[in-house]
Here is the input.
Amino acid sequence: MALLERVSTLLRANINDLLSKAEEPEKLARQLVLDMENQLMQVKTQVAIAIADQHLLTKKKAEQDELHAQWLRKAETAVAKHEDDLARSALERALSHQRMGEGLAQQLADQTAETETLRGAYLRLQQKLTETQARVDLLVAQLRRSRAIEKAGNAQALLQSPASRSKFANLAGKVNEADARGRALRTMLTVASAEAVDERFTAMEKNDQIEALLLELKEKVTK
Here is the structure.
């Protein structure tokens, strides 16, 4: 499924690496968030469709199972009245509904697996989007702060520099600007990476807590 392939690509994307190599990291960051939001909406729609198809297949299978049971009862009635030919016809109908039910059961199993795959992709992409939005907010704040500092520094330099050295001051300002942006971006990526590690440890501790509670409930039930 092309949609799941696109989602998988977004999930594998190394946000920090992409932003560190981008000429306009703020613009790229916002585009990444927009792409994830669009994909998330598409996956959500597909999950809803998959669940609806799953319910429909469940209903159809139940109908075939009921028809199979009805024709078996009719065959038993015919046998009881010594109507063997009628019983054979009823059994033939029962087998037909049984085969259709088995086919629907396989379709239902496949549909259930697809639904769970889509649901899992939706949850993972939703988490990735939340993490990316947080990193983008941090990036924007860092860049704006860096630009404000750069503007203040450049203004002060212009006031203090003699007119005869203005050309050199402009060149130094450009070098400082590039260096400041590089430092700001590296600082942001370092903070974002640290936050990602903290989030992973938090998730791991949460999973351990859930497993402990589950074990406690099982021990309580078995007593």
